[in-house]
Amino acid sequence: MKILFYDTKSYDRDSFQDTLKDFPxxxxxxxxxxxxxxxxxxxxxxxAVCAFVSSxxxxxxxxxLHNKGIGLILMRCAGFNNVDMEASRKYGxxxxxxxxxxxxxxxxxxMALALAANRRLYKAYNKVRENDFSLSGxxxxxxxxxTAGIIGTGKIGAAMxxxxxxxxxxxxxxxxxxxxxxxxxxxxxxxxxxxxGSDLISLHCPLMDSTYHxxxxxxxxxxxDGVILVNTSRGALVKTEDLIEGIRLHKFAGVGLDxxxxxxxxxxxxxxxxxxxxxxxxxxxxxxxxxxxxxQGFFTREALSAxxxxxxxxxxxxxAGRESANDVK
Length: 329
Ligand code: NAI
Hints:
This protein is an alpha/beta fold. It has helices spanning 10-20, 59-67, 85-90, 103-118, 121-129, 155-166, 191-197, 217-222, 240-248, 267-270, 273-277, 280-285, 301-319; strands at residues 2-5, 27-30, 48-51, 72-75, 94-96, 147-151, 170-174, 186-188, 200-203, 227-231, 252-257, 290-292. The protein is built from 13 helices and 12 strands. Helix 6 (155-166) links the parallel strand 6 (147-151) and strand 7 (170-174). The protein is globular. 1,4-dihydronicotinamide adenine dinucleotide binds at residues 78, 100, 103, 106, 151-157, 174-177, 204-207, 210-211, 232-234, 258-259, 295, 297-298.
């Protein structure tokens, strides 16, 4: 079984090479190029390709992969919105993914953002490096006995609920389905009640038509003054222009974002003055109470090895012709 691994970063190679020891018979060749219609032809002579959220696995790419004899696309991530499933089905190419690898990795990062934004750790770090040991601008508030409002209580949201409980917070949640595992310590409430009653709001629901821009000026105005907002899910859950307006209205004590609407527009790859001038992300970064990280929630050793393990198991299931819960239908 030969896999061509696209968009390789050094940490991908390390975790996959390490896991490969337990999968004799699987061979991986790594390329730095990402998968798209120009690079799909490189897959000639391989059985499968391994791709990521950034890959362009549209109709054209799928067609070329089919012509080169590829029978399997291994997505080393949960999402598959960048794969044209109709084309994959048409050409009989199986698509497999890694639905959940380490919910704690993302939830712990969400809490790290909440704490860093609350206590202005990024500012404190820079001040002390400049030999400024004063505390001005660094005051936060205790999380203990405050209310955490968790929107979306699936795998990651549930892990965040447990972390907030550990901090001694009251935990309320909003979801279209209640998670029975949380019934002992989480109170489900309406979205409005969550918005008006929470000191910390953390988003953990997927991006769908029904959740697109769910945080907008209307919902922001319903929040408590001095709330902390954290988004580690998908940028477009938050309408950035409205978030900026909310920050200007002094609604937020802090905002921590691991994801942002412009993530896919290469805003910070191009870095031209013109692009940055119109970038809402760059505008967000100009506020002292906003902290942004670059979609690193998943990025822990444990999560990477779980991704490698599941991806390689998916490859074996394909080879053996076994059905799998990780099949994208
Ligand atoms: P999950 O599928 O286990 O949970 C999602 C929850 O959201 C479910 O309980 C679902 O009922 C709920 N939901 C659906 N529609 C909703 C609505 N309209 N309002 C409120 N809740 C709603 O997903 P999981 O694994 O917990 O992941 C959550 C999100 O985290 C993913 O969709 C993804 O966007 C993001 N993510 C971010 C990563 C990062 O590195 N920052 C890494 C992995 C995932």
